[in-house]
Amino acid sequence: MTGMVAGKVAIVTGAGRGIGRGIALTMAREGAAVVVCDIGASLEGAGTDASPAQEVVDEIKRSGGKAIASTLSIAGQQRRHPA
After folding, report:
1. In whole angstroms, what is the distance from residue 76 CA to residue 44 CA?
2. What whole-number distance in Å separates Cα of residue 44 and Cα of residue 8?
3. How far apart are CA 31 and CA 29, in angstroms?
4. Measured between alpha carbons, how far is 42 from 83 in angstroms, rounded to an integer?
5. Residue 25, CA distances (Å) to 13, 40, 58 in order
6. Handedness of CA 29, 31, 66, 78 (dihedral sign)
7. How many other C-beta atoms lie within 10 A of the C-beta of residue 59?
8. Backbone phi, then psi, for 62, in 5-degree steps?
9. pLDDT interval class at 82 (50, 70, 90)
10. Which residues contact 54 (CB under 8 A, 6 or more apart)?
11. What's the pTM?
12. How do the residues of the chain divide into helix, strand and coil, expressed in percent and rounded to 5?
């Protein structure tokens, strides 16, 4: 399935560590530009740290890919449906 995401933008939440990180790196390897979203909270959910997201962005860019980091939280966001 190589090239399936080539030229597209992938937004990956929780992309600073673990499975999200792996997904972000794979998307970039397959040609997607990646928005690496991670607030950098601890495993307990406390605090914020931009470095996990930025480290993934740096790795993607070193490999020739395109990526940006986002540390905005999506928690509590409500989707509004038209009536």
Report:
1. 18
2. 33
3. 5
4. 39
5. 12, 17, 11
6. negative
7. 16
8. -60, -30
9. low
10. 69
11. 0.82
12. 30, 15, 55
